[in-house]
Design brief:
Layout (H helix, E strand, L loop, with lengths): L1 H20 L25 E7 L21 H17 L4 E4 L3 H14 L3 E3 L19 H14 L15 H20 L6 E6 L1 H11 L5 H13 L12 E7 L3 E7 L2 E2 L6 H29 L2 H34 L6 H11 L3
Helix pairs in contact: 1-8, 1-9, 2-3, 4-6, 8-9, 9-10
InterPro entries: His_Pase_superF_clade-1 (IPR013078), His_PPase_superfam (IPR029033)
Protein name: PE-PGRS family protein PE_PGRS11 [Mycobacterium tuberculosis H37Rv]
Pfam families: His_Phos_1
Length: about 350
């Protein structure tokens, strides 16, 4: 009994420390996402992934719908799914066709899978964000607004903002779930000898939230007008319309680059402001992720798992402290002195690393 209380006390202290660290200048990339300006050396193979919003479903009005199986496609949605299949089939071949567990996702994927003579593989990680207490509320309601604002907070890096009653309790839990699906897609693709492009059918809020939370080039000069236009029309779902495609390229280890958003190309180097946003986003995400993993370990009650979670959290936060100033310095010097050497940033990073 004493040992268990001792472990919980240590875990609680580490959890508190990780949470407090969220307001200090530290940074580490989320799992699989590299630090901007740091040369990647892993050489992991890249794939291309078309993440597609499902077609129109037959829900009863503009309400939040994230249940499983949920409503099927409407007649309009069935036509949209066929049009999507006709378009994507010409751009193939594909290594795999994937969909979440909501029936509208599988029905959106079915015409494409039929055209290519393959099966749809269902992955729970591609499901819509679990709405919790907001389920079945009108989108244009205070509850609907809170649901959207929660996703917005996650996008900005405040991933501990919760959804009460949801399996996706916070942004860290949602992000890890979606990441697991992409890891499965990646592993299946690179294990074979066929194409290096896949199609994954998901939902609008899940796609939008995960993409902006994770990609290395979330150019807000493109995204903000999309959000503002959707807000003006009172239809935030139109940020990514039905059967809209978000194309990304990369791998889970080195991270993902946004290639296009519903046909709008994204710059691979969107400039200093976006780079600094990514630095800040990763700065506050790292301790939240560490704290969440410690919390899950405490719930499990295994002392060895708790110890591993604490040690891993301390290491990642320590590495973050060493990397953050050098990353920001590199971003700034690359913007204003593109031909300058990178030795000052490297020297700063090495000096800070010697403290940990």
């Amino acid at each position: 009994m004493y040992a268990k209380h001792r472990w919980c006390g240590a875990a609680g202290a580490a959890l508190l420390g990780a949470s407090l660290a969220a307001i200090t200048p530290v940074i580490a990339p989320r799992s699989g996402v590299p630090m901007p300006g740091v040369q990647l050396t892993s050489g992991d193979e890249q794939i291309t992934l078309d993440i597609v919003r499902s077609a129109q479903d037959a829900r009863s009005g503009p309400i939040i719908t994230a249940t499983i199986p949920g409503p099927p496609l409407s007649e309009t949605g069935q036509k949209q799914a066929q049009d999507l299949a006709d378009m994507l089939a010409q751009e193939g071949p594909y290594a795999g066709i994937y969909a979440g567990q909501q029936i509208r996702m599988a029905e959106t994927a079915d015409p494409l899978a039929h055209a290519l003579g393959t099966d749809v593989q269902l992955l729970p990680g591609l499901n819509e964000i679990d709405a919790g207490i907001y389920q079945d509320l009108p989108i244009a309601s205070p509850g609907g607004a809170l649901f959207s604002l929660t996703s917005a907070a996650w996008i900005l890096g405040f991933e501990f903002v919760p959804i009460p009653g949801s399996h996706d309790l916070n942004g860290v839990a949602f992000d890890e779930r979606f990441d697991d699906a992409l890891q499965t897609i990646y592993d299946n693709t690179v294990d074979g000898t066929g194409p290096r492009t896949d199609v994954a059918i998901s939902a609008d809020q899940a796609i939008t939230t995960w993409a902006v939370m994770n990609v290395k080039n979330p150019d807000f000069t493109v995204l903000v007008p999309l959000f503002l236009d959707a807000a003006r029309r009172g239809d935030l779902e139109s940020v990514l319309p039905e059967t809209g495609v978000v194309e990304i390229k990369g791998n889970p280890q080195d991270g993902w680059t946004l290639v296009s958003w519903n046909g709008i190309p994204f710059p691979q180097d969107p400039g200093l402001l976006t780079e600094l946003f990514v630095d800040f986003r990763d700065l506050i995400v790292t301790p939240q992720t560490a704290a969440w993993n410690i919390y899950l370990a405490v719930l499990g009650g295994d002392p060895e798992t708790i110890q591993d979670a604490i040690q891993t959290g301390l290491i990642t936060v320590g590495e973050a402290i060493a990397q953050f100033p050098a990353t920001v310095l590199t971003d700034i010097t690359d913007e204003f002195l593109p031909n300058s050497a990178s030795e000052p940033a490297a020297m700063l990073s090495d000096a800070l690393a010697s403290w940990f």
